[in-house]
Amino acid sequence: MDKLALTTRFLMFTGFFLAGACAVVLAILAKPELYDYYHNRATLDQLGAQNERIKELTDQYAARIQLIEDEPGILKRFSTSTFGQKPQAPDTVFPEAGSQKLKAETEKILKAETQPKPVDPIPAWLTRVIDPTNRTALFLAGAALVFITFIFFGSPHIKTP
């Protein structure tokens, strides 16, 4: 065989064998390894977001403590909103926000903000691969492709003189 035929045969063998081997490896590693990897990565992202939220809260609390230390009179202004105390000012009428409807809407908004949106950490392609029938089919197709590759593109018959 000439060099062009051997090179073509080698490239075809490499391409088909690589495709079959990748299919077999993907079918084997899909459920335990890749599935756990994506779940662990999602958990790590959630923990990182929670840590960022804690850092933000800590910075806000530190800023408020610094403000209280700098201006001692500010506690009187904070006491009305924070502790629910009535303001102490002579000859002034302060409106009271005691509506149950307002409180219910406020709680609803706060609940919607604090609930994390459920995100599926598993990509769609991996969900399809994890399905047992697809996984078996992928494994068998990859194994068949490797087997056929060795049959058709194995070592060529070289005539010996």
Task: Give the helices and strands as they follow along the chain.
Answer: HHHHH
Rg computed from alpha carbons, rounded to a whole number of angstroms: 34 Å
Structural class: mainly alpha
Helices, by number, come to: 5
Proportion of residues in β-strands: under 5%
Unreliable stretches covering 5 or more consecutive residues: none
Helix content: over 70%
The count of DSSP E runs of length 2 or more, i.e. the number of strands, is 0
In whole angstroms, how far apart are the ends?
14 Å
What sort of overall outline do the alpha carbons produce when their principal axes are compared? rod-shaped
**Main sheet characteristics:** none
Integer average pLDDT: 84
Keywords:
161 residues, mainly alpha, 75% helix, rod-shaped
How would you portray this structure in words?
The chain has helices spanning 3-70, 74-82, 100-114, 124-130, 132-153. The longest helix has 68 residues, at 3-70. α1 runs antiparallel to α5 (132-153). The protein is mainly α and 161 residues long. Helix content is 75%, strand content 0%. The radius of gyration is 34 Å and the shape is rod-shaped.
Brief overview, please?
The chain is an all-alpha fold. The mean pLDDT is 84.
